[in-house]
Write a structure and sequence with these properties.
Rossmann fold; eight-stranded mixed sheet
């Protein structure tokens, strides 16, 4: 099915099963960090997500996750490269998030595209959030635009649409999946609000 430049409302595992092998250039996502947000065993579900992402993607998988799970992630799902999002002193929380990068093959060597490993970008405060785990647009744009020739980008946990907005502003194509109908509508509204003149 053609999901290009769409927000699909549904369970990401079910939707990803419909996407052919090696049909997207990049997976860029920030999945749920907390066990309470996931039905069933968290790591069993993560195994399924990770497997599908690796099947679908042909160049690079990028996952923003939680420092509280970093040790397990590094052991069970060792990345090719690790980057850091440093949040500064904007809130009483953990001060950074790990960004795990997985190279899909030697045909696309991610190390030659990476010019920065640490991003000092303030997190979004709660009053400005449209999603409880919403991340800054500038963070997503800064990372995505490093990777040339990644034209189709999948986010299986699109939330309020930040990945899609970053893609649109960078003239990339996106596929977004979100299980919440409410957040799907928020994402579509945010994307449609971007002036088309930016892309001509």
């Amino acid at each position: 099915m053609d999901y290009i430049n769409q927000i699909i409302c549904g369970d990401c595992l079910e939707v990803m099963k419909e996407i052919p092998d090696k049909s997207v250039d990049m997976v860029f996502t920030s999945p749920s960090f907390k066990e309470k947000d996931i039905k069933g065993d968290y790591w069993k579900e993560y195994d399924k997500w990770f497997s599908e992402m690796n099947r679908i993607c042909k160049k690079v998988v990028i996952i923003i996750h939680s420092v509280t799970k970093l040790n397990y992630l590094m052991k069970k799902y060792p990345p090719k490269r690790l980057m850091i999002w440093g949040k500064g002193y904007s809130q009483c929380t953990y001060r950074f998030n790990p960004i795990l990068l997985y190279q899909m093959s030697d045909d696309y060597k991610i190390n030659k595209y990476i010019w920065c490993d640490v991003f000092g970008i303030q997190s979004i405060q709660s009053k400005k959030k449209e999603h409880k785990y919403q991340d800054p647009l500038i963070l997503y744009k800064s990372i995505i635009k490093m990777f040339r020739d990644c034209e189709i980008i999948l986010d299986p946990f699109i939330g309020s649409g930040t990945t899609a907005i970053a893609c649109k502003e960078l003239n990339r194509k996106y596929i977004g999946i979100e299980i919440s109908p409410e957040y799907c509508e928020i994402a579509r509204r945010r994307i449609s609000a971007i002036p088309e003149l930016l892309f001509k």
